[in-house]
Amino acid sequence: MSVARAYERLCAELAGPVRRDEPMARHTTFRIGGPADLFIQADCVSDLSALSRILGEDHIEWTVLGKGSNLLVSDEGYRGAVVVLGRDFRRHSIVDSYLHSGAAVALATLVQDAFSAGMSGLEFAVGIPGTVGGALAMNAGSRDEWIGGVVESVTLFVPGQGLRAIRGHEVPWGYRRTDLASRGIIVETVLRLAEGDAGRIRRAMEASLSRRKRSQPLGLPNAGSVFVNPEGDSAGRLIEAAGLKGARQGGAQVSDVHANFIVNSSGATARDVAMLMKRLRDAIRDQYGIELTPEVRFLGSFDAA
Ligand SMILES: Cc1cc2nc3c(=O)[nH]c(=O)nc-3n(C[C@H](O)[C@H](O)[C@H](O)COP(=O)(O)OP(=O)(O)OC[C@H]3O[C@@H](n4cnc5c(N)ncnc54)[C@H](O)[C@@H]3O)c2cc1C
């Protein structure tokens, strides 16, 4: 593996910018994370072909990132390449009742597009940060409604094969779960909307936003819910019942607004967050016999926590 050689080749072949030793704290909503060896913006499909070939030949591990709003990156960073999508993946338009979008578009932009066009279907997504690609990979939404429910099709880039379109109904959508990211890089989607009443759409969005403002610690860096809600219960309720709301580990704290959120209250490290998560999981297992599953994704090494 030669990062230096791969860097030279990537710079020579790609349209998008390539950086070395990029601090991942700049690319996560937690504001936490050490450097990635390589940070690559793919501006077009041929960039994806070139980077997957070069990184493969140089035996460099890589991953795709959206806005890093569901991610904890190790303090030591990532010994590999982080790929983000640029230029060609930022296009979006509504044709008839279908919203076509590149994976790099902010989900909030699509929510606004739909609202402006008087189309219903994305009200549940108001206030969810991140990109369309991240939302599809995570099947973002609420407990009852998620983006998978409105997906007509998804286009993936599969290294060595190229673009591959999948119908929405062929994807196994589950609560905060899909297999899309394991099948390729999500580059584009078509969402199915329906004509709606503008007043009703606005009221649904406003109600959802004010619920978020009341129940989420929006003033401090965080990555949303850290655990998936267990069947028939809520992770926040369990953590609060275990007396751990407000618990601290270094600069990380269980939010006192919502116990399923961990906030970076003052210079938290990834290790602080990971240790606090472990403490919460241990406590819930010991007290209730319930195994909490992380919703937050991890990047880099977390052996110590
Ligand atoms: C304040 C706050 C509130 C939140 N509220 C909600 C909520 O209500 N509901 C909810 O579901 N989530 C919520 N989240 C979590 C998060 O915003 C979502 O999971 C979001 O969809 C992640 O998008 P992202 O672009 O930031 O993805 P990232 O965090 O960058 O990535 C998440 C995962 O998706 C993969 N991925 C990203 N892009 C691609 C791609 N193009 N192809 C393949 N894989 C990809 C990454 O490898 C990673 O595994 C919240 C987060 C915050 C900070």
Notable characteristics:
305 residues, alpha+beta, Uridine Diphospho-n-acetylenolpyruvylglucosamine Reductase, domain 2, Uridine Diphospho-n-acetylenolpyruvylglucosamine Reductase, domain 3, Uridine Diphospho-n-acetylenolpyruvylglucosamine Reductase, domain 1, 3 domains, 5-stranded antiparallel sheet, 29% helix, globular, binds flavin-adenine dinucleotide
Low-confidence stretches: none
How many domains make up the 3D coordinates? Answer: 3
- CATH second-level architecture of the largest domain: 2-Layer Sandwich
Side-by-side strand order of the widest sheet? 6-7-11-9-10
**Rg calculated over all Cα atoms:** 20 Å
How would a crystallographer describe the biggest sheet?
5 strands, antiparallel
Overall pLDDT confidence: 96
Indicate the CATH class of the largest domain. Alpha Beta
Oligomer: single chain
Question: Can you describe this structure in just a few lines?
Answer:
The protein has 305 residues and is an alpha+beta fold. It is built from 8 helices and 17 strands.
Describe the structure.
Helix 1 packs antiparallel against helix 2. This protein has 3 domains: 85 residues, Uridine Diphospho-n-acetylenolpyruvylglucosamine Reductase, domain 2 (2-Layer Sandwich), CATH 3.30.43.10; 110 residues, Uridine Diphospho-n-acetylenolpyruvylglucosamine Reductase, domain 3; 83 residues, Uridine Diphospho-n-acetylenolpyruvylglucosamine Reductase, domain 1 (Alpha-Beta Complex). Strand 14 and strand 15 form a beta hairpin. The protein is globular and about 55 Å long. 43% of the residues are buried. The strands form 5 sheets. The protein has a 5-stranded antiparallel β-sheet. Strands 1-2-5-3 form a 4-stranded mixed β-sheet, with helices on one face. The mean pLDDT is 96. The chain is α+β, with helices and mostly antiparallel strands. The two termini are 27 Å apart. Helices cover 29% and strands 26% of the residues. The structure holds flavin-adenine dinucleotide. The site of flavin-adenine dinucleotide has 31 residues, from strand 3, helix 4, strand 11 and strand 13.
